[in-house]
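FAQ: What does the model actually see?

It sees only this:
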Amino acid sequence: MRRWFLISLLLFIGAVIFLGSSIATGEGQLGVFLIFPFIFASGLLAATGVILLFGAIITLFIGSATSIEQVQPDFRFSIGPKQEPTTIEKRYGGVVMLGPIPIAFGSDKKIARKMMIIGFVLFLAIFVIILVLLSGII
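And it is asked to produce this:
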């Protein structure tokens, strides 16, 4: 359901705000190990941010599980010309981020290309955020 995804998005935005606030106030520090960014923090702001982040992940899983529709077979009989059953072609795709490196997959080339573009945009966003945070602008 869209409601769960909206709640997850709001929780994630709250987590980013709280974790960013903990870094800005000096309660936390941002670092990079090899290519993986991490936050080392202590205090109420960081704890609230982590709790909101876990809440966002849990609500995202709940939203994904509740959005799966159960298909009921149609056993109605009709008199008349026989109709061919219609099938809906399902297309899917996704991006797995290993650090900043995107790995895209999809059921066809079109979806895989779109996922690769999304992965590249995420890579650029991660790269820019790391550069900004490490340069001391924030």
